[in-house]
Amino acid sequence: MARYTGPKSKIARKFREPIFGPDKALEKKNYPPGQHGPSKRRGKQSEYAIQLLEKQKAKYTYGVLERQFSNLFVKAAAKQGITGENFLKLLEARLDNTVYRLGIAPTRAAARQLVSHKHITVNGGVVNIPSYSLRPGDVIAVRERSQALEAVTTSVEGRKINKFAWLEWNANEFKGTFLSYPERTDIPENIKENLIVELYSK
């Protein structure tokens, strides 16, 4: 699946969650899209359909392609611990997601763009790969020449201090530190990772 570039409200309504951020359309029409609206009879979903929807929700949320998604799952399954939790931790450790979590960008899509356009450094070196996997102790920063970008300054000004326990932010230097992999209880996304594990286990 290529990255979704169509109507975001349609996807948010499909999952009945603000996947791409606050959405007025979702608030007004909190039911799946379709020409028959909320009156349409919807049959009971199969176990496979429920698992597949959860996988799609995670892919849309983190903006990850199918191959990247599958490779991350294999990596998570090979690690010690609970596979589903390991999987979410690896998704959270992506550079684009961390740039978003630090408040440098207002959305993950905007974060991917900043990374791709070489506005972000990791441990002092420019990294333009959104899927780059961070390790505890890595320092993520906005390049000095990019700190005046309106998109960056507006986003940084609106961020909340120490919003996520596994990240540390230095507003004066436009840099943050990936302190550790997050605990599952600290990850705010409403994703039932056990359903994704069940889907891949078939």
CATH architecture assignment of the largest domain: Roll
CATH class of the largest domain, named Alpha Beta
Percent of residues in β-strands: 5-15%
Mean pLDDT value: 85
Count of extended strands: 5
Placed side by side, the strands forming the largest sheet appear as: 2-1-3-5-4
Reported by name, the CATH topology of the largest domain is: Structural Genomics Hypothetical 15.5 Kd Protein In mrcA-pckA Intergenic Region, Chain A
GO cellular component, one term: small ribosomal subunit
Family: Belongs to the universal ribosomal protein uS4 family.
Subunit structure: Part of the 30S ribosomal subunit. Contacts protein S5. The interaction surface between S4 and S5 is involved in control of translational fidelity.
Protein name: Small ribosomal subunit protein uS4
Description of the molecule:
With 202 residues, this protein is of the alpha+beta class. The protein has two domains: 6-34 and 43-88 and 190-199, Ribosomal protein S4/S9, N-terminal domain (Ribosomal Protein S4 Delta 41, Chain A, domain 1), CATH 1.10.1050.10; 94-182, RNA-binding S4 domain (Structural Genomics Hypothetical 15.5 Kd Protein In mrcA-pckA Intergenic Region, Chain A, Roll), CATH 3.10.290. The chain is built from nine helices and five strands. The protein has helices at residues 8-15, 24-28, 47-62, 66-78, 83-92, 95-101, 108-116, 150-157, 193-200; strands spanning 120-122, 125-126, 139-142, 167-170, 175-178. It has a five-stranded antiparallel beta sheet. The chain is globular and about 55 Å long. The chain starts with 7 loop residues before the first helix and ends with a helix.
